[in-house]
User: What shape does this take?
Amino acid sequence: MTPTLARLPAAVLGVAFAAALRAQPPLLNPSARQGFDLNGKWNVIVDPYDTGYFDYRHEPYDAAPNPKGGFFLDRKPADKSELLEYNFDESPTFDVPGDWNSQSDKLFYYEGSVWYRRHFDYAPAAPSDRLFLYFGAANCEAEVYLNGTKLGRHIGGFTPFEFEVTGKVLPRGNSLVVRVDNRRHQEAVPTVNTDWWNYGGLTRDVRLVETPGTFVRDYSIQLRKGRTDLIDARVQLDGTLSHQHVAVSIPEAGLAAEGDTDLAGAVTLAIPAPQLKLWSPEHPQLYAVRVSSANDQVSDRVGFRTIEVRGEDILLNGKPVFLRGVCLHEENPLRGGRSHSPEDARLVLGWARELNCNFIRLAHYPHNENMARIADEMGIMLWEEIPVYWTISWDNPDTLENAKAQLTDLIVRDRSRASVIVWSVANETPVSEPRTRFLKTLVDTARGLDDTRLVSAAMEVRADPSDPSHKIVDDPFGAYTDILSFNEYVGWYDGLPDKVPTIRWSFAYDRPVVISEFGGDALQGFHGDALTRFSEEYQADLYTKTLAMLQRIPQWRGATPWILVDFRSPKRVLPHVQDGWNRKGLVGSNGQKKQAFFVLKKFYDEKAAEGR
Ligand code: GCU
Assistant: This one.
């Protein structure tokens, strides 16, 4: 929490915090709309002491009724005598989208504020249109100013946000200034301790989006829960004329439906669909869908599939499926830094495809929208997660609101993506009453927004104190999830690989078991015997033994080993081995595959050959 807020009374704090989260989820599918990309080179000012934000009495400039200072004013000296100690025009530039850590060696470890400034001209296609400034994400807090006026603040580094700027955009010379702050805070989500790099910046697309006065703000087009022949098309309008006639059409399937919204601008249309080709990894069928209202239309490509649990099986389109998965962070190891583009997604999803994966766990936070759209096309099922990671401030109501907002924004953004089959609300969180209550609230939030997908979390395993080879999964939170998913590191953090064959499991719940993490580090190209830590042989042996052990679990229905490719982590400091990388990848940070890649591939090829 930025220092300013700490001095505000709780009631105001709650409101200021709630306001910073967002009024409503941002509009959907901005790239399918009329508009203007603001990506490219932005001038930046690195501001570790927040000189551009606070005066010397540490009062925020933008809180003053008639602000005299502050970088958000984006001013130039009026004459040769005026004292101004910043100048965006003369300042360096960074690429947007992009993190600052991989764009400047000086900022590799930097945690603090950076000011971004972009000038632009813009004349809306139709003067009556509304205008929205849309950000795919900014890590992890952003304050946005247009032409010297504050639009607002957003908290949360991995979900989209917007500000309406209708009537605020000039035909020429607009000044857009964003202060991005990636400082970590105990009460934030994620909290201060993570095993990934805290990339800061405008990490995803920035776009000026034009809409008609009343427009289609939100829609979800999916098969009704448990049905393969009935589509629910839910549409939400935004605008003064929200009581309108809307239509949804799926021309390639010869389907269409129409109806009137209620006074709140909402309608759900049920569309009988007896002949649909269902989406699956083998046949990633997508259909062009059009949602139209009186004077708005938005198009999308949507796949239709069902996903459910029946006893100890996971059923995709009614048939048992085994989730041949792997975990992934949102990083392009070859270019370095956060990934954000369709090409970035194709690179890593391509490696997963080579492994013969049909499933990927996007860890531990919402990845960019391109991931799910490319996974839709490639036929890869996804687990999406919010960064309720390790030890969060369970009793802090703002922390809960923050987590709920991130979960809501993720689900609203991706709930028409056929590839997404699991919403995960947490990773490796310590069992306690307040924690389980916190997570249960998130499960309810997820089910309230989308009852058609599985909900889970990466839970913890406990060892039987009387028998270290006896592993027990009885996390009370398991009572609320659809699958039993947990992380296990026997043979890496817990003993050596020869301990793996001795392991036996007890589960408190009759659910499909999906191992959300297992694995060990190996430096690509470093070789030794199977007991040499960090050698490829150790990792490969660990995989061989773990896969054999997991096969003995009758209700085992999937796995996402940790992790597809090495990723940056400030917690990994072993010289000449880790050097700031978590080396548990099956692919090295140089893009080279390790022996374990082929151990897992062979196993998945066999599973696929079994038709699972
Ligand atoms: C944990 C955690 C990961 C971490 C991994 C590791 O289980 O969920 O975020 O990177 O283990 O230790 O490598």
Confidence is low (pLDDT under 50) at residues 1-15. The chain has eight helices and 33 strands. The pocket of alpha-D-glucopyranuronic acid is lined by residues 195, 364, 427-428, 487, 517, 562, 582, 584 (CB under 6 Å). The radius of gyration is 25 Å.
